[in-house]
Amino acid sequence: MVKVTQRRRVTRLSADGGVRERADVLAGEEPLEIRVGGRSLSVTMRTPGDDFDMAVGFLHGEGLLVGWEDVAQIDYRSGIGADGQRDYNVVDLTLAEGVPPPDASLERHVYTSSSCGVCGTSSIEAVRRVGRHDLVDDDEAHPLAELLALPDRLREGQTVFDRTGGVHAAGLFLPGDEGLGLACLREDVGRHNAVDKVVGWAIRERGMPLRGAVLQVSGRASFELVQKAAMAGIPTLSAVSAPSSLAAELAEDLGMTLVGFNRGSSLNVYTGRQRVR
User: Fold this and answer.
1) Catalytic residue (one of 116, 149, 246, 276)
2) How many angstroms separate the CA atoms of 238 and 140, rounded?
3) 89: which of 143, 231, 249, 263 is 20 to 30 A away, CA to CA?
4) What would the mean pLDDT of 101-110 be, rounded to a whole number?
């Protein structure tokens, strides 16, 4: 049976010669196969939990569905794991009538690691697609102080990280009467998985686009995270670490605000300076 965390005995060795046996908690990592209409589309390594949202977010980022109305059914396919119990590592989604099935060129014929969201795709052009939502006309700006507070607010909600120290996090912050409010936070061994889980939740609970929203992530800002945020109509992506050159280029092309090295006291704005007050 899949678990978010697992316990394991470890030997702790210290520079002063100390040796101690202790229990440690590790972040769960299991393969998830995503099928559409019974046909396998992708296998990725993920931390179990929120699998339906992850599948929906992944398919949205691939341009295969727009909203929750495009989903006719989603469920687990039964299987028996090595422990003899039912596992939950295959999700099958049925598209609503009239929604085009995935093109065969999008099928991933390699296993995708938890650190790679676009590996195995046929070409860079297949993922460098412009989203359906125009980010340029989403001009809501946020005070610098609010943006600087987001990493700490994200960290406060990272319960799995507290136990394991081994997962990424993504948090969706939406504008309200009292400023940016945390609407959804997800953790996963793969940063792109955490974002897919957040986007899938938003599709199911709110709908697209996410105007005025800020996506805060715990690691770096890669090309794939910019692409996923843009597909969801999120105008601002903020990361604790650095963006890649391709991420900055894509963010600029799409009119997105890209923030990096957001450490609570300062940050770098790489594109879209107009959204930071």
Assistant:
1) 116
2) 15
3) 231
4) 64
